[in-house]
Design brief:
The chain is an alpha+beta fold and 143 residues long. The protein is built from three helices and seven strands, in the order E-H-H-E-E-E-E-E-E-H. The protein has a single domain, classed as 2-Layer Sandwich (Alpha-D-Glucose-1,6-Bisphosphate, Chain A, domain 4). This is Polyketide cyclase. InterPro entries: Polyketide_cyclase/dehydratase (IPR019587), START-like_dom_sf (IPR023393).
């Protein structure tokens, strides 16, 4: 199984960084022009983007990629998986949060991926790594 890891330091408290990255709408900023829309709320009315929620990603009316939040530990960890995608055999996204001090947070984003077609995983992961680095740099300027 192939994987990538991106680390980014945010000059903000862990609570603020977690709150930002736990919202599906945040990824509209991070990964523009890709659009992200929550299509299913979690069972927790206090946190509709929490465990069980589903987001669709794509462009305009075409959003074929669906991700479901599978774990959410406030100020510590978020996990999600891709669902209903015939091209991807396994995709797990893990976002970990580490308090460096009162106003600095280290975010570590790991993605495991196995595509159904050979050699495709490495290409997808290279593109994701680049997009995450750019997206996190954009987001770090907003907090």
């Amino acid at each position: 199984m192939k994987s990538i890891q991106v680390k980014k330091e945010f000059n903000a408290p862990i609570e603020k960084v977690f709150e930002l990255l736990s919202k599906h709408a945040t990824y509209n900023v991070a990964f523009a022009p890709i659009q992200v829309v929550r299509v299913k709320d979690s069972a927790d009315p206090e946190r509709p983007d929490g465990v069980g929620s589903v987001r669709r990603m794509g462009f305009g009316p075409i959003k074929p990629l669906q991700e479901q939040i599978t774990l959410l530990e406030p100020n510590q960890r978020i996990e999600y998986k891709i669902i209903k995608n015939p091209l991807v055999k396994h995709h797990l996204g893990i976002i970990q949060f580490e308090r460096l001090d009162a106003n600095r947070t280290l975010v570590t984003y790991t993605i495991e991926l196995q595509a159904r077609a050979p050699f495709v995983s490495q290409l997808i992961l290279a593109q994701l790594q680049s997009a995450i680095k750019i997206g996190f740099s954009k987001l770090a300027k907003t907090v």
